[in-house]
Specification:
The complex is a heterodimer of chains A (113) and B (116). With 113 residues, chain A is mainly β. Chain A is built from no helices and eleven strands. Chain A is globular and about 45 Å long. Chain B is built from no helices and eleven strands. In chain B, strands 2, 4, 5, 6, 9, 10 and 11 form a seven-stranded mixed beta sheet that branches. Chain B has a four-stranded antiparallel beta sheet with strand order 1-3-8-7, with no helix packed on it. In chain B, a hairpin with a 6-residue loop joins β4 and β5. Classes of the chains: A mainly beta (113), B mainly beta (116).
Chain lengths: 113, 116
């Protein structure tokens, strides 16, 4: 069935360093990959996304890369700040006979001041 | 507030009781999703509606769970004979709908269910 694996489950970095979170998906028909940030007790919020016809997308300190052949995509946060501390989820849009998102299990990012 | 709203925000119930949650999506959003999220996990897909039609139900959704969206606007999720394993955050999300997923999915604040 459809599956999205996410690594690592926890990540601690020093303020100012970069953080990388990786996801692998199983459905080769997936064509859209959003990333969500969820702060404690709050709802998931979309922070960046990428379509399958693009290899990389940047938005200020955040970037996402996609390797369709390998079926994996990554979130890169540069110059991390304490307010980046949260749980990050990747997701893949499944289109094989249905239209839904499959989420990864999340990465708890802690930025140490 | 014009975002997705959910009611109640918290629900504590005893095992065996029935509970019902409500989700009000962003107006004009055709697609509505229900997810369950347990501590340390990502949202797990439960079911979704395109307007009033329920198009898919996850295998996670046992016969004790039922969802409706009678007029294509708000939706309810009912859990009958609750079990302790049902304790979780139940998230609702909505989007404009269609084949193009770039209409962003907006999440509600969730209903946290605790089954004693």
């Amino acid at each position: 069935g459809e599956n999205v694996e996410q690594h690592p489950s926890t990540l601690s970095v020093q303020e100012g360093d970069s953080a990388v979170i990786k996801c692998t998906y199983s459905d080769s028909a997936s064509n859209y990959f959003p990333w969500y940030k969820q702060e404690l007790g709050k709802r998931p919020q979309l922070i960046i996304d990428i379509r399958s016809n693009v290899g990389e997308k940047k938005d200020q300190r955040i970037a996402v890369t996609l390797n369709k052949t390998a079926k994996h995509f990554s979130l890169h946060i540069t110059e991390t700040q304490p307010e980046d501390s949260a749980v990050y989820f990747c997701a893949a849009w499944v289109t094989s006979g249905t239209y839904k998102y499959i989420f990864g299990t999340g990465t708890r990012l802690k930025v140490l001041a | 507030d014009t975002g997705v709203s959910q009611d109640p925000r918290h629900k504590i119930t005893k095992r065996g009781q029935n509970v019902t949650f409500r989700c009000d999506p962003i107006s004009e959003h055709n697609r509505l999703y229900w997810y369950r999220q347990t501590l340390g996990q990502g949202p797990e897909f439960l079911t979704y509606f395109q307007n009033e039609a329920q198009l898919e139900k996850s295998r996670l959704l046992s016969d004790r769970f039922s969802a409706e969206r009678p007029k294509g606007s708000f939706s309810t999720l009912e859990i009958q004979r609750t079990e302790q394993g049902d304790s979780a955050m139940y998230l609702c999300a909505s989007s404009l709908g269609g084949r193009d997923p770039l209409d962003e999915q907006f999440f509600g604040p969730g209903t946290r269910l605790t089954v004693l």
